[in-house]
Amino acid sequence: MGSFSGGASPYGAEDMAGNVWEWTDSPYVAYPGSTYNDPQYSTEARVTRGGGWFDDQKQVSTTNRSAALPQTANDDLGFRCVSEKAPSGQ
Predict the structure, then answer these.
(1) Is residue 58 classed as helix, strand or coil in its secondary structure?
(2) Pick from 53, 58, 61, 51: which is nearest to 9 by CA?
(3) I need a labelling partner for 85 at 20 to 30 A (CA). Which of 12, 39, 54, 60 fits?
(4) Closest CA relative to residue 48, chosen from 81, 70, 15
(5) CB-based contacts of 42: which residues, under 8 Å, 6+ apart?
(6) Both ends of the chain: CA-CA distance in Å?
(7) H or E segment to which residue 48 belongs
(8) Which residues fall within 8 angstroms of residue 21, CB to CB, at 6 or more apart?
(9) Are 38 and 51 in contact (CB under 8 A)?
(10) Cβ-contact 18, 50 below 8 angstroms
């Protein structure tokens, strides 16, 4: 059970922001069609989301996107295990 059940996503996921930054499997590159260029873009780095326990309030959001290299380890970086459900009928 999440700490703030009123903030559950439409998919039922809770506590997606403010606990630890969460790894994703996505390389940290520009969004398709974007003209924004971050000097930190890299196919080696992976996107992290959500903000950590010590970040400013404006950073604690599931839409906040940052990155870390796979060998990075610290006390505000974690992951969430997820599984994909096959569409009905498959």
Answers:
(1) helix
(2) 61
(3) 60
(4) 70
(5) 27, 28, 29, 67, 69
(6) 30
(7) strand 42-49
(8) 48, 49, 50, 51, 52, 66, 68, 76, 77, 78
(9) no
(10) yes
Structure tokens, 77: 């970086």
- Encode pLDDT of 23-68 as tens digits: 888 999 999 999 999 999 999 999 998 888 888 888 888 788 899 9
CB 45 within 8 A of CB 71: no
Domain boundaries of the chain, sorted by first residue = 17-78
Q: How far is CA 76 from the centre of its chain?
A: 12
Token code pair at residue 26: 């996505």
Confidence (pTM): 0.72
